[in-house]
Amino acid sequence: MLKLIKKFWHWFRSPSRIAVGVLITLSFIAGIVFWGGFNTALEHTNTEEFCSSCHMNDVVPEYRQSVHYVNRTGVKAICADCHLPHEFIPKWVRKIKAATEVYAHITGKVDTKEKFEAARLEMAEREWARMKANNSQECRNCHNFDAMDFTLQKGVAEKMHTMAIKDGKTCIDCHKGIAHHLPNMKDVKSGFLPTEKAE
User: Fold this and answer.
1) Could you give the CA distance from residue 176 to residue 172 in angstroms, rounded to a whole number?
2) What parts of the chain have a pLDDT lower than 50?
3) Binding site membership: which residues?
4) Where along this sequence does the record place binding of heme 2 (predicted)?
């Protein structure tokens, strides 16, 4: 056994070209397998099923009654479409921040419907601020002023979208509560009137 260890150590300290090639090839294959497995696991955390595992008793039922889940065109937006940036770096930043939200659920801060409702305004304001800061990028991945035909919109929508462009507003300025119930807003002082339903 000692002889075998010495032989391995000698090979390790002065490997042949074949050994270096094998080592590089195995490292490359291991890297691909690791990245593939890691990416698959990460993508699983973007699914509606994963989000539902914690949110089935609070926001999932209300989301399933929204226009983002069921609508006349059959186009569906899942949780990650609205709550996760598509770009690589922003996606990773958001995933890291989301780890604190998972921690809050695991440690019991928002693990019941009652606790969730008590924290809903704080969580909503944090999400609205994030979306305001990135110009509602997740909304704009599907909805974009440049692609809208205002003549096909209802009169009030056409008027509000025209005003939003003129005033430099972003989607979340008006469309709070589009996929989830609004928190209790009676003590909130703001210059907007949030909408619950919009198309």
Assistant:
1) 6
2) 191-199
3) 51, 54, 79, 82-83, 101, 139, 142-143, 171, 174-175, 180
4) 79, 83, 180
